[in-house]
Design brief:
The protein is an alpha+beta fold. It contains 7 helices and 13 strands. A hairpin with a 2-residue loop joins strand 5 and strand 6.
């Protein structure tokens, strides 16, 4: 019969529709941030960012123990950092060894529902750059490969993380993400006043049983405004003129202070 010729087409259409139906049922994470644009002015003392979202097609029942983990990673503009080690020579502390690292985030914060070691194994964490130990800090220089091979680079790498943590630019909150209800979640991070300007990426990962199921990214921009922006632009766009102006202002301020405090 003629209709039998349509059987392969009908079967193919049914198979494709079933495949799309299964894809639609997969868990997806949707997220956003409270502010996508932060302006730094003279009175800037930091900013609180709220990351929130939901899990679509969640299989989590109301009375079931938490089935999913959520990890949030905020990464700032990358930079090159030089780390120096001081040594005491002839009773004087001087800079001895130094190493230069590329690809260092100017700001890096990680928040999760549980400690990262309980969320996923080291392979998964390294693949997505989650956690201080998973950051790829690339050493520069002719002796970089040999240094990385003998393991001495780890001392300087740890110093990068330690200094950034001290400055408030690196942070880790192992229970910083909380579920509000069955599928909703939120996380809060306080960004310090010394955050670098530039483009930031806020990545939110959904995991179950140590496997990443879904990923969502939001963009954040931090920039200077007002007089702060004028000074910042002048320093980077016209460094020579900025330096000359700074010297003239410093000399003028010194002369003015000398005149005002002079005793006749």
């Amino acid at each position: 019969m003629a209709w039998r010729g349509f059987l392969p087409i009908i079967f193919t259409f049914w198979f494709v529709s079933q495949s799309f139906a299964q894809e639609d049922k997969s868990e997806l994470i949707q997220s956003d941030i409270s502010s996508r644009n932060i302006a730094i002015e003279s009175n800037f003392t930091g900013e609180r960012i709220v990351i929130f979202g939901t899990i679509e097609n969640s299989q989590h029942s109301e009375f079931e123990k938490a089935l999913y983990d959520v990890v949030v990673a905020i990464r700032g503009p990358k930079d090159t950092v030089v780390i120096r080690k001081k040594s005491r020579i002839a009773g004087i502390w001087i800079n001895a060894d130094s190493y230069t690292f590329a690809n260092v985030p100017g700001y890096y914060a990680v928040l999760s529902t549980r400690p990262l070691g309980e969320v996923a194994n080291r392979t998964v964490l390294n693949a997505y750059g989650l956690g201080f130990d998973s950051l790829i800090l690339r050493p520069l220089g002719p002796n970089a490969p040999a240094t990385a091979a003998n393991g001495s680079i780890n001392i300087f790498r740890s110093a990068v993380v330690r200094i950034r943590q001290k400055d408030g630019l690196f942070s880790y909150k192992p229970e910083g993400v909380v579920f509000v209800g069955r599928n909703l979640f939120r996380a809060t991070i306080d960004m310090p006043a010394n955050v670098p300007v530039g483009q930031y990426a806020t990545d939110v990962y959904l995991l179950r049983n140590g496997e990443v199921l879904s990923h969502n990214r939001s963009q954040l921009k931090i920039h200077k405004e007002g007089f702060e922006r004028f000074v910042f632009s002048a320093a980077f766009d016209h460094p020579l003129l900025y330096g000359i102006a700074a010297v003239i202002i410093a000399i003028s301020a010194g002369l003015l202070a000398s005149v005002m405090t002079r005793r006749d």
